[in-house]
Each structure stands twice: as structure tokens, then as C-alpha cells.
Automatic annotation (TrEMBL):
Domain named N-(5'phosphoribosyl) anthranilate isomerase (PRAI): residues: 10-237
Assigned protein family: Belongs to the TrpF family.
Record's keyword terms, sorted: Amino-acid biosynthesis, Aromatic amino acid biosynthesis, Isomerase, Tryptophan biosynthesis
Listed InterPro entries: Aldolase_TIM, PRAI_dom, RibuloseP-bd_barrel, TrpF_fam
E.C. code: 5.3.1.24
Gene3D superfamilies (UniProt xref): Aldolase class I
GO terms under biological process: L-tryptophan biosynthetic process
Descriptive protein name: N-(5'-phosphoribosyl)anthranilate isomerase
Catalysed reaction equations from the record: N-(5-phospho-beta-D-ribosyl)anthranilate = 1-(2-carboxyphenylamino)-1-deoxy-D-ribulose 5-phosphate
Enzymatic class: isomerase
Pathway: Amino-acid biosynthesis; L-tryptophan biosynthesis; L-tryptophan from chorismate: step 3/5
Membrane-traversing stretches: none
Gene: trpF
A GO molecular-function annotation: phosphoribosylanthranilate isomerase activity
Length: 241
């Protein structure tokens, strides 16, 4: 288990402009996310490329810059190739029903890190650590669905299920399932990232109560659907201290 003193990484998802990126790039943010799946935050590969170019320029000047994450839902291989030929992403985040063998193949073909999202339905019963050993027997629902990915991806992200887009709903799920997810991630040797309805007001409670490796936020740092620099600053401060 990692050091309890380490603060979780921060991912700000759904960026749409260089102007916003320039206003937040000096914050201790570990990843920024671009949405290529159906969403009001969806951007083109060219828009992402502009932001990536800005980050590369800063990196060449000696600045620390966040990694870039592209969010996809059940993309075809051609769609991925089209995006990655224009926007040189560091990480692909799969938010759909992508199979483990697909994840392995994509990692190898494109030379990127790959995160897999597990979306949790709030009507699913909470999972506790005591039943973790029963994963192989099919007891643990969504955690059992994760198990085939333990050698196929680099990180797992848990989010609230959305019936339209799968995730990205801006709603929280039952946090009492986090300890079991954390135990699974440790057993798989990969980070656990938590999303779903996080904002500056509740993220402090999350990281105080649970040991996780990263947090992911989008709508929780927006005002009227637009990224709010003050909310991003407050969110990052609550996480990183």
C-alpha cells in the first residue's frame, strides 16, 4: 500500500479551449481530459491538438505539465487512429464496453496508457471488503466485471452510471464501495481513480475518508456549463492542500 501521506492526483476533464488551459496550467494538476465521445463537452482532434501543442511548448521551457487523456466510448479502431494521428494523447480512457483483449491491443498498437472506467449503478448493492475474496464466485457485481482487466489496463476509474453516456453524469455513487475497489486495484497493481459528482465542497470529505490515487472532475468545476477557474482552483486546493 502506498504512503498515506501522498495526496491524490487531480484530473480536470472536459477542457475545450487553450484559454482555460492557460489559466489553470500552473495548478498542481496531473491530468487534463478531452472528450471525444458524445457529450456537450465533445471537441475535435484539432482543438485537442492545439491544447497539446501549448503543453509541449511549456514542457520545452522546463515547466511541469499534466498528461493528456482522451475520453472515448466504444470507439472503432479507425476512429482512435484518426484522433491520435492529430492529437498525440498520453492516455486513452475507455468509458464503454471495451473488452480486455481490445484494451491490450490498443495499448500495443498506439503506445499509450489505457484507463478503464467502471460505471456504478446506485441501485447495485454496496460491496464490502469482507466479501472481496468471493470475486471469482460472482458475488461482487461490478468488481467482478473489472477482474478480466487486471492485466489489460494501467488504471481503473470508478464513476456513476449514466443511462445515456455510461458515465459523466455529475452525480455521486455510494462511496462505501470504494474500499473494495481500492483492495481490488491494489491486488491488480494499478491506481484507483474516483469520479462522479465531485466538487470543491465534497472532495475533501472523499479523500479524508478513503485512500484513493486520483480524483476526476468535470461538471463540478463548471458554472453554467463552462469551466470556472475559481472552482478549479478551490477543487485543486482541497485535494492537494
Amino acid at each position: 500500500m502506498g504512503s498515506v501521506s501522498k495526496r491524490p492526483d487531480v484530473k480536470i476533464c472536459g477542457l475545450q479551449s487553450v484559454e482555460v488551459l492557460k489559466s489553470i496550467v500552473h495548478f498542481p494538476i496531473s491530468q487534463i481530459g478531452f472528450v471525444f465521445a458524445p457529450s456537450r463537452r465533445r471537441i475535435t482532434p484539432e482543438q485537442a491538438s492545439e491544447m497539446i501543442s501549448f503543453l509541449h511548448e511549456r514542457a520545452q521551457q522546463g515547466h511541469r505539465v499534466p498528461k493528456t487523456v482522451g475520453v472515448f466510448v466504444n470507439p472503432t479502431r479507425d476512429e482512435l487512429a484518426d484522433v491520435l494521428s492529430v492529437a498525440k494523447l498520453d492516455i486513452i480512457q475507455f468509458h464503454g464496453e471495451e473488452a480486455p483483449e481490445t484494451c491490450r491491443s490498443i495499448k500495443e498498437q498506439f503506445g499509450v496508457e489505457l484507463w478503464k472506467v467502471s460505471s456504478i449503478k446506485n441501485e447495485e448493492p454496496p460491496v464490502n471488503e469482507s466479501s472481496f475474496s468471493d470475486i471469482k464466485d460472482g458475488v461482487n457485481g461490478w468488481i467482478q466485471r473489472l477482474d478480466p482487466y487486471r492485466d489489460a489496463v494501467d488504471a481503473v476509474l470508478i464513476d456513476t452510471f449514466d443511462p445515456v453516456y455510461g458515465g459523466g453524469s455529475g452525480r455521486t455513487f455510494s462511496w462505501d464501495c470504494i474500499p473494495a475497489a481500492r483492495k481490488w486495484a491494489l491486488s491488480a497493481g494499478m491506481p484507483l481513480i474516483v469520479a462522479g459528482g465531485l466538487n470543491p465542497d465534497n472532495v475533501g470529505d472523499l479523500i479524508e475518508q478513503y485512500e484513493i490515487d486520483g480524483v476526476d472532475v468535470s461538471s463540478g468545476v463548471e458554472t453554467d456549463g463552462v469551466k470556472d477557474i475559481a472552482k478549479i482552483a478551490a477543487f485543486v486546493e482541497r485535494v492537494t492542500g
